[in-house]
Design a protein that fits this description.
Order of helices and strands: HEEEEEHHEEEEHE
CATH class of the largest domain: Alpha Beta
CATH superfamily of the largest domain: Mog1/PsbP, alpha/beta/alpha sandwich
Helix content: 25-40%
Mean pLDDT: 81
Shape: globular
CATH architecture of the largest domain: 3-Layer(aba) Sandwich
Distance between the termini: 59 Å
Number of strands: 10
């Protein structure tokens, strides 16, 4: 093998090692897996989120809503778990997800930019991108979310950034990290699960 070939192979090996090192470098360095005491899901977050719970009344009944949120480097990360009243479930998974989307868009005063159907472990969901205008309480920005209907539980995994494109790798990794914990998850009923 000539010196030129050895140099070329050495260069190629260094390039491949560099790509391998980049691929192994986690995008969420310093983040930790979080799971609430109920243990029904896990997600990576940039610290310990603040937990808030409330009971809310809807046209379909009363349900508990619990949020887990944290703000880091200008991005808000949040998971919201809410009970879906049986009368709402009777409308079917598509209608439940449509109503959740419409409520979120209206509450944020946002414009729905993108939406697609998704699944998590056979449970139906939606992935959405909203353009959110400036308000008295927040700057304008991008709201990315994935929502899932798991039995009688609705999960919203949300990231909000006031700088479009900023932290997109971290936001995508956050959304991708959400998982149901089979050992701790006790979905109430099989409504919304595909056979």
């Amino acid at each position: 093998m000539t010196g030129d070939h050895k140099t070329m192979l050495s260069t190629l090996a260094l390039i491949l090692l560099g790509f391998a090192a980049q691929a192994a470098d986690p995008p969420l360095r310093g983040w930790k897996e979080f799971s609430p005491k109920e243990g029904d899901f896990r997600v990576s977050m940039p610290g310990t989120p603040e937990e808030k719970s409330q009971t809310r009344e809807t046209p379909d009944g009363v349900g508990k809503l619990t949020s887990y949120g944290i703000v880091r480097e200008g991005v808000a990360y949040m998971v919201i778990r809410s009970d879906v009243p049986p009368s709402a479930l009777a409308k079917g998974p598509k209608k439940v997800l449509d109503e959740a989307r419409d409520h979120g868009v209206k509450k944020a005063g946002a414009t729905l930019r993108e939406e697609k159907a998704i699944e998590l472990d056979g449970h139906p969901g939606r992935e959405m991108v909203l353009d959110v205008p400036e308000s008295r309480t927040r700057p304008a920005g991008i709201y990315r979310s994935r929502v899932y209907l798991v039995g009688r539980t609705h999960y919203s995994v949300i990231a909000f950034s006031s700088k479009p494109g900023d932290r997109s790798k971290e936001i995508t990794s956050f959304l991708d990290s959400f998982r149901l914990k089979r050992d701790g998850a006790k979905p109430r009923g099989d409504v919304g699960r595909k056979p």
